[in-house]
Fold:
Amino acid sequence: MNERAIVEAALYSAGRPLTVDELARTTRLDPERIREHLRAIAREYTQRDSAIEVTQIGTKWTMQIRSDYAERARSFAPPEIDRDLLKTAALIAYHQPILQSDLFDMIGAKVYEHTKALEELSLISRKPSGRSLSLATTRYFAEFFGLKSTDREGIRKLMAQKAGVPYKEHSDPASSEEAREASLPSPAEAVVPGLPAQPTPAATE
Structure:
């Protein structure tokens, strides 16, 4: 695999400035080789007169839009989503369709604020289901997160990695919700890394 492409992909995926040491831990490449690749990538973007630049800021390297193009491009930028909300989005994508009351068992009372925010971003839909709401991703979800797959099973697989849960393929896409739930990890197993496990209260809305 092309080392330079790996460094470029890591810098792009991070969406923030990274030190050489951070890139080394992520890519498992030699730090000195990473420095060489970063300088080469920076030259390539400059020679192409690209709107994107790879540049060093202090001790960190970043991939960003050149200042000449930033103002015009800003209106197309998707709204920012914080890490905590991202974890909730990943859990919904993995377990979908999931009842809001079941998601409450996983993450607690913040489920109401999070699901409302995700719905306002057009990332999920909330539909009445008994005494609760059924949550599922929208068509815009894959586009927002830059996922190549747009089908729900493909999204489950990709977001399972973000949620930090083992992926289990549905053998029958038309199976009932009971069968679907049987193939998924329990709420305790589905806790996202860095998100403390919540006690299991009585189910509410």
Remarks:
- The first helix runs from residue 3 to 14.
- Residues 172-205 have pLDDT under 50 and may be disordered.
